Amino acid sequence: MEAAKYSASSKFATLSLSKSDRIRFLAFPEPICRQAEPVLRRAWPPGIKAEGLYAGSYEYQLKGRPWGMMGKSEAIGSRVLLRDILAFLYGRGWVLATAINLSEKIGSKDTLLFRDAAAGRGTDHPPALPAVDWLVVQFYHSKTIYLHGVGADGDAAEQQPMLKAFREMLASTGYLDKGGWSHDAYEFVLQGRPWRCHGEKSMKARELLLGIMGVLDGHGWEPYGTIRQRTDSDDWRHCDSWYLIRKTGKGCEGLIGDHTVGEGA
């Protein structure tokens, strides 16, 4: 891997999602950029098309269009991809500080600003951050919620307390149409079109958000960041995706399994 042209001494770094298929690491230590490759290959089955330096950053170009405007499987897969990148960086002591859109261009996506929790202690000994599980709440196509990271596909998983609480909350508010597994995520299809509503109905959608947060908080989940990660157009906008963590109580040194960061990686 060619050496990056920037200094890795800064306590801040950025991850940018560019075009429909690029990820750019800026001001991360060189080992972080290199170690990201197997994470990307594992989290994004189509694989990597190319990689190399780009304007002082290290860029991976992925096959397919994870940040593209269309495609249900790509939309769902991109949340798993970004979840695993966030978990990878967290496991090496880089914590998301904020997501921000720095471009006025149609189709621009968020830039993710990270802070080095080690604060100059180097990359060989990351700080003992709490081990966490990861959950993604994806608001999709005007009336759908996908939950990524709630357990294994199957009937038994549907009986887990959080999914039951979600179903009961949606039913009590009159939003529930149906629920089931789709693309390795749990899908709730809602009545109406809450993500495209107008007028007074827009406030009912905000009440739904309060209900969602109540269920998540009641099961130990706390917000980590909200990210706009797919391309928009003049006529179409995508909702933010919501990334959450739940502490497991262990020290943090690496990525374990699909979405847990903890000891022994």
From TrEMBL:
Lineage: superkingdom: Eukaryota
PANTHER family (alphabetical): MEDIATOR OF RNA POLYMERASE II TRANSCRIPTION SUBUNIT 13
Protein name in the entry: Uncharacterized protein
Organism: Neoarthrinium moseri
Top-level taxonomy: Eukaryota, Fungi, Dikarya, Ascomycota, Pezizomycotina
